[in-house]
Amino acid sequence: MLMGGTIAGDLPQAKPVFRLDVTRLRRMFWHMTFEDRYGGGRALVLGGSGGIGGALVDRLNRCMAVETLSRSHNGFDLTVEQSVENWASKLTPGYSVIFDATGALEIDGAGPEKSIGQIEPDAMTAQFALNAIGPALALKHLTPLLVKEGPCLFASLSARVGSIGDNRLGGWISYRAAKAALNQIMHTSAIEIARKRPDAVVVSLHPGTVQSDLTAKYLGRHDAVTPPEAAENLVTVMGELTPEDTGGFFDWKGEVIPW
Description:
This is C-factor. GO terms for molecular function: oxidoreductase activity. InterPro entries: Fungal_SecMetab_SDRs (IPR051468), NAD(P)-bd_dom_sf (IPR036291), SDR_fam (IPR002347). By secondary structure, the protein is an alpha/beta fold. It has one domain (about 30-250): NAD(P)-binding Rossmann-like Domain (Rossmann fold, 3-Layer(aba) Sandwich). Helices cover about 40% and strands about 10% of the residues. It contains eight helices and eight strands, in the order ββααβαβααβαβαβαβ. Strands 4-3-5-6-7-8 form a six-stranded parallel sheet, sandwiched between helices. A two-stranded antiparallel sheet has the order 1-2. Helix 3 links the parallel strand 3 and strand 4 (about 65-70). Helix 5 (about 80-90) packs parallel to helix 6. The chain is globular and about 50 Å long.
């Protein structure tokens, strides 16, 4: 059959519509590294004496002036507001990066629950104090120390098990809930911080499964990376993130984790 001089079966086909991942495209376009964004600046690492924290300090020292706070080195206690406030008053403003590497899966000998029947109020309270309220206090007292102009970043260690959408196994109720609370705290704080610091990136980061004395008994058959490998992965991701990513929850590959 002819239609306007053209055989209907030979009509030109519509070109497929390509839907671009704008965020990924933007990162590819900029090709920026962590050193490009933050190199030469100052960094503050909370929990700098831990496995991941110590490895981050070593990695950041290659391109930044790094300061650390930890309970073992200088008595810094993230779960006590007076301690956080006192240390904040002693620090000189102007950090480009603040990284909260605190947190624990097992606190005072209480490991993660395998069922709801194992929930203990004191153990759950301790999980929230360290893994959620502590980072909230850090945001409250330390984000005013970030540079007021130009790129800056506040990141906190979270965990994939804090994802509600990704939870298919159950268990670990207190730890999961505390990390989910942390993610909400980070997301909400990012919205507020962006009003005064539009170039800021505030994110929760999942480092992957990392080898340490504390996690050894929980690794099972899961592949795990060393703390230096985890630190390198995190630095790579932080270098790729832009203000449009603020408030997000990302894994060690830079992929978004569902809430």
